[in-house]
């Protein structure tokens, strides 16, 4: 298939492009590079030895995007492009609502215009809010605590309605749990701007000496050791989930959790990182982070049943691969 990948130079998008190319699909990437680097294109080519088309375009620019649909025969779209910093979304709600919702609306409008019937969307476990764990796809969604989370819930709603009104348009809503790790080549991975918000990128920067010590946000939750529990999933497993989702998408709307089904606490992750890489990660316990919930993880059985997809990589793989990328990565 010829697949249009928005946000394809970003973290999850770049790994997905590699897996798509490995399965002999062609990719056309559009990205405005607001949170990624042009060098990623060369890295994807280096890993796969395949060619790709790249356009530096904002997905909210309907005219520019229309030209891509005119100039390429597109069989399906995977829509990663979006802003994702939870804290920033609280400070800049309009920026987040505009970027994340308008991009989804324009892209789906052009799909309908050019008869492109496969649409895969990057959603998030955040749409479950404070539901009981494990999260299952048919649960009612609960309010999230920030505008970023709301853009995911609203985008899901928009795509459900578009699909309902256009029976040929099929949609896969993929709810990611906590993507971590990097490609085993060490060439692509997660390189957040500024101080990382997420746990594993923070840990790798402490290990590298860029940051002094990890702050563990709370050790008084009702969890195995009092620290927050999440379902960490290796980004390459996640990428393979996208390949399966678009290959198997034939009709209607499908919703899948992409997680491992296993919870890991903050301290368990720190210990795994130390063991995998033989390196100490100093930490201190501080207050809980506002908006955090104690524990969440996926019921990942639906994706296994219907897509034949299951996460394979372990927490140790995630820690090793994240560290290899961090060691190789040169800040520019
Ligand atoms: P990322 O920031 O690395 O990648 C997103 C890419 O989209 C970036 O390259 C950015 O430059 C681009 N982009 C943003 N707005 C754009 C626009 N208007 N036009 C064109 N390009 C634009 O993020 P990621 O971690 O790869 O996440 C990919 C998607 O998955 C996002 O939609 C994100 O919300 C979602 N998601 C991520 C996580 C996570 O923890 N990484 C979890 C759940 C869902
Ligand atoms: N944590 C720390 N110290 C840090 C960073 C995080 O102790 O410096 C803890 C958090 O309190 C939490 C756990 O590590 O218990 C994981 O935190 P992350 O920030 O890595 O991930 P979250 O689960 O909070 O959120 C992430 C994304 C959201 C997304 C959600 C579900 O940032 O956008 O996963 O996919 F919605």
Please, could you describe this protein's structure?
It is a single chain. With 332 residues, the chain is of the alpha/beta class. The protein has a domain at 2-182 and 232-259: Rossmann fold. The protein has helices spanning 11-22, 39-48, 62-71, 86-91, 93-113, 147-165, 199-208, 235-248, 266-277, 301-307, 315-328; strands spanning 2-6, 26-31, 53-56, 76-79, 118-124, 170-176, 178-180, 214-217, 229-230, 232-234, 253-258, 264-265, 283-286. Strands 3-2-1-4-5-6-11 form a 7-stranded parallel β-sheet, sandwiched between helices. A two-stranded parallel sheet has the order 7-10. Strand 1 (2-6), helix 1 (11-22) and strand 2 (26-31) form a beta-alpha-beta unit. Helix 1 crosses helix 8 (235-248), helix 3 (62-71) runs parallel beside helix 5 and helix 5 (93-113) packs parallel to helix 6. The chain is globular, with a radius of gyration of 19 Å. The two termini are 35 Å apart. The model has no long low-confidence stretch (mean pLDDT 97). Uridine-5'-diphosphate-4-deoxy-4-fluoro-alpha-D-galactose is lined by residues 84, 86, 124-126, 176-178, 197-199, 202, 214-217, 228, 230, 266, 289, 292.
Topology (SSEs and partners):
Elements: E1 2-6, H1 11-22, E2 26-31, H2 39-48, E3 53-56, H3 62-71, E4 76-79, H4 86-91, H5 93-113, E5 118-124, H6 147-165, E6 170-176, E7 178-180, H7 199-208, E8 214-217, E9 229-230, E10 232-234, H8 235-248, E11 253-258, E12 264-265, H9 266-277, E13 283-286, H10 301-307, H11 315-328
Parallel strand pairs: 1-2, 1-4, 2-3, 4-5, 5-6, 6-11, 7-10, 8-13
Antiparallel strand pairs: 9-12
The site of uridine-5'-diphosphate-4-deoxy-4-fluoro-alpha-D-galactose has 21 residues, from helix 7 and strand 8.
């Amino acid at each position: 298939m010829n697949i249009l990948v928005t946000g394809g130079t970003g973290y999850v998008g770049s790994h997905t492009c590699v897996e798509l190319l490995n399965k002999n699909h062609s990719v056309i990437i559009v990205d405005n590079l607001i949170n990624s680097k042009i060098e990623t294109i060369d890295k994807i080519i280096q890993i796969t030895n395949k060619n790709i088309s790249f356009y530096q375009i904002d997905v909210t620019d309907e005219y520019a995007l229309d030209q891509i649909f005119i100039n390429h025969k597109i069989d399906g779209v995977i829509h990663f492009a979006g802003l994702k910093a939870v804290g920033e979304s609280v400070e800049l709600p309009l920026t987040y609502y505009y970027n994340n919702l308008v991009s989804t609306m324009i892209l789906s409008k052009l799909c309908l215009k050019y008869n492109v019937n496969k649409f895969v969307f990057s959603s998030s476990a955040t749409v479950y809010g404070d539901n009981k764990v494990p999260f299952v796809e048919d649960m009612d969604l609960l309010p999230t605590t920030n505008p970023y989370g709301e853009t995911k819930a609203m985008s899901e709603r928009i795509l459900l309605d578009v699909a309902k009104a256009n029976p040929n348009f099929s949609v896969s809503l993929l709810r990611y749990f906590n993507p971590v790790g990097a490609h085993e080549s060490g060439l692509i991975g997660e390189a957040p701007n500024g101080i990382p918000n997420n746990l594993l990128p923070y840990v790798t920067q402490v290990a590298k000496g860029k940051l002094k010590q990890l702050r563990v946000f709370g050790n008084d939750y009702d969890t195995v050791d009092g620290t927050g529990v999440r379902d960490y999933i290796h980004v390459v497993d996640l990428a393979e989930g996208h390949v399966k989702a678009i290959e198997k998408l034939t009709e209607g709307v499908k919703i899948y959790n992409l997680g491992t089904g296993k919870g890991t606490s903050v301290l368990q992750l720190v210990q795994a990182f130390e063991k995998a890489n033989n390196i100490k990660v100093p930490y201190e316990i501080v207050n809980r982070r506002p908006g955090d919930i104690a524990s969440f993880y996926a019921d990942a059985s639906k994706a296994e049943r219907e897509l034949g997809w299951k996460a394979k990589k372990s927490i140790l793989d995630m820690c090793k691969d994240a560290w290899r990328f961090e060691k190789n990565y040169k800040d520019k």
